[in-house]
Design a protein that fits this description.
Elements lengths: L5 E2 L45 E5 L13 E5 L4 E10 L7 E3 L5 E4 L8 E10 L4 E9 L6 E3 L1 E4 L3 E3 L5 E5 L6 H9 L1 E6 L4 E7 L2 E6 L8 E6 L5 E3 L2 E3 L5 E5 L3 E6 L4 E6 L2 E7 L12 E4 L2 E9 L14 E9 L6 E4 L17 E3 L1 H10 L5 E5 L20 H6 L23
Parallel strand pairs: 9-18, 11-19, 20-28, 26-27
Antiparallel strand pairs: 1-8, 2-3, 3-6, 4-7, 5-6, 7-8, 10-12, 12-15, 13-16, 14-15, 16-19, 17-18, 20-21, 21-22, 23-28, 24-25, 25-26
Pfam families: Big_10, YkuD
Pathway: Cell wall biogenesis; peptidoglycan biosynthesis
Organism: Streptomyces griseoloalbus
Amino acid sequence: MRHAQSLRGAGAGRRSRVVGCTLLVIALGAGASGCASDGNPLSAEPYDAADQISFGGSVDAGKRADPDKPLEVVAENSDGRITDVTALDASGRYVAGELAADGSRWHSTSPLAANARYTVRVSTEGEDGAPGRKVLTFTTGKPTTKRLGVTFGPKAGTYGVGQPLTAELDAPVKDRAQRATVERALKVESKPAVTGTWHWVDDKKLHYRPQDYWPAHAGITVRSTLEGIKINDRLRGGTAKPLTIRTGDRVIAVTDAATHQLTVYKNDEEIKRIPVTTGKPGFETRNGVKVVLAKERFVRMRSTTVGIAEGSAESYDLDVSFATRVTWSGEYVHAAPWSVGSQGYANVSHGCVGMNTDNAQWFFDTVREGDVVEVVNSAGRTMEPFGNGYGDWNLDWTHWQAGSALATDTAPGRQEAARLRPTAV
């Protein structure tokens, strides 16, 4: 007798072949459903390859299935073969799988989600080419493992074209294969489209950036499809709130420490050139690309916060206006009325980029978080990629890609120190 879940394919199949019972394996691990016949072969239905497939692994008869076991579809008879299998959950997530070359077996290659309802559609072909189809639905059980939370950043809003996306995990993920599972589920969409990838900063933090800066006036959305997916025996994906941000104009400020000039470009056109001073010997401004982190109308700057002893010849305690922060360690672009005589001529600061008050206010009003501030021709070291702000753009694209768990070449960039992108000259 035909199983209730079997759908008859187009055509009657081979008239010359009859079968006495249909085997449908749906218990976990092994086992079969019962079969029956009235003993008269003339009462059996014509052969259909769709009747000769079994489901195993995740599929469990009459109760929720174990999501930790893979889904298997097997052709039970050599006279028919599987031609296609699609499996997806109620939210539209497809299960990746692999079909044997001879069509005898298909098995899932990506994890199933917990507490999810799946629909599996199997297409078959008989020895004479007659098509068949079978549809099965099953539900996976609830996980007993911890859920991995993901928080995306920055907060919703409009940013400059240098703003990386961030993903903060609430539990560490160290294994490369487990990282790959997490990373595949973190989806980034940009309009216009860009080429970009995630980079693992550490066991709990990822950054995403394109190969080049984001396009101006782009819409960028990041979301997670990790919910319910097994990461390891103790950890499954949890919920994550999606994030949408936009970019504004392409604003890039380049400070040349050798010529003591800061040039601001908007959408690739120069809009202002400002005389500045940068870090003096022993306090050189970092070279490389930085990203605006915040803007502070007034900030108190004290030398003790950067390791300069109070009362020493280099100590200071100043109230500073129009301060645009580019590192967490205290590097700013700001008003420096005390050094106007040196601006455009000499480098006399303790590492910040200083300019007169009117120019500092203009700069403060022109840039936004995520805009790019680059320093060239300084004797200082290059801005570190992580840990002191967003130095992400100081890694060249090859080494940025190597920080992805999905990178195909694991040797360069992973086993050696990250190579910094050379700055302009």
